[in-house]
Write a structure and sequence with these properties.
The chain is an alpha/beta fold and about 250 residues long. About 30% of the residues lie in helices and about 15% in strands. The strands form 2 sheets. A 6-stranded parallel sheet has the order 1-9-8-5-2-3, with helices on one face. Strands 4-7-6 form a 3-stranded antiparallel sheet.
């Protein structure tokens, strides 16, 4: 199946990038709730991933947060209270400040959670959650999957030339050798990302320009994992002028 051509939205700076993406995300959530009664989004970590949550905290009028399913693209397999947990950062930025339904916030287990230090069991548990809320194909069709990106093109915890990036079947895998610390993580794979209706990249900085160019122009996903991520309806790159400088 062919995927739509990527849309590129260029902002003057990271602040405007986040505002543009935030306004559009509110519109998508409100439209999904109007049409189906609920919406589903996948959150991401990193500076821009947390910044959009902080923006939403103050600017989400019209969103019924009780009718939003919240997932995570990845998380560090560290103790529950570790500051590096994406879930903890998202909680402080947004989830503690809006009326979410706790039963609709789907969290990856930490290393001191229900499965203790068994990262494979924790990853399998998140795969089970996705399967239970999916349509039989392994994961839900998310309305929007938000993605940050590293300068080498990694998304979620899918790094170049790794088994996790190359995964073609499982929706969730454990990562034990991440080149970026901490080494142990749980991540959604490209098959799960690509079931999203819309995949949005939030990328700022000239140091990301090569990866943005590779992702937008169809680079090799082995070298640039970002190039392997596509929404079924839309793939949108929200970038600042630095990140867009090699397009």
């Amino acid at each position: 199946m062919s995927t739509p051509e990527p849309e590129i939205v260029i902002a003057d700076d990271a602040t405007e990038l986040i505002a543009q993406a935030g306004r559009r995300l509110v519109d998508v959530i409100v439209a999904a709730q109007r049409d189906r009664g609920s919406a589903s989004i996948v959150l991401t970590g990193g500076s821009n991933g947390i910044a959009i949550l902080e923006w939403l905290r103050e600017n989400s009028d019209g969103v019924d947060w009780r009718a939003v399913d919240v997932y995570f693209g990845d998380d560090r397999f560290v103790p529950r209270d570790d500051d590096e947990r994406n879930y903890g950062q998202a909680t402080h930025a947004l989830l503690d400040h809006v009326d979410v339904d706790p039963d609709r916030v789907f969290v990856m287990e930490p290393s001191d959670g229900r499965f203790g230090d068994d990262i494979d069991a924790a990853a399998a548990d998140y795969a089970r959650i996705l399967h239970e809320h999916g349509d039989g194909a392994g994961s839900p069709v998310f309305d929007v999957h938000l993605l940050g990106m590293g300068g080498e093109g990694h998304i979620n915890s899918l790094f170049p030339h790794t088994d996790a990036r190359a995964e073609q079947t499982a929706a969730v895998v454990a990562v034990t050798d991440s080149p970026k610390p901490p080494p142990r993580r749980i991540t959604l794979t490209l098959p799960a990302v690509n079931r999203a209706a819309q995949v949005w990249f939030l990328v700022a900085g000239e140091d990301k320009a090569d990866a943005v160019a590779a992702g937008v122009t169809g680079g090799d996903p082995v070298e640039w994992p970002c190039a392997g991520a596509h929404g079924s309806d839309a793939t949108v790159w929200f970038v600042d002028t630095g990140a867009a400088s090699k397009l």
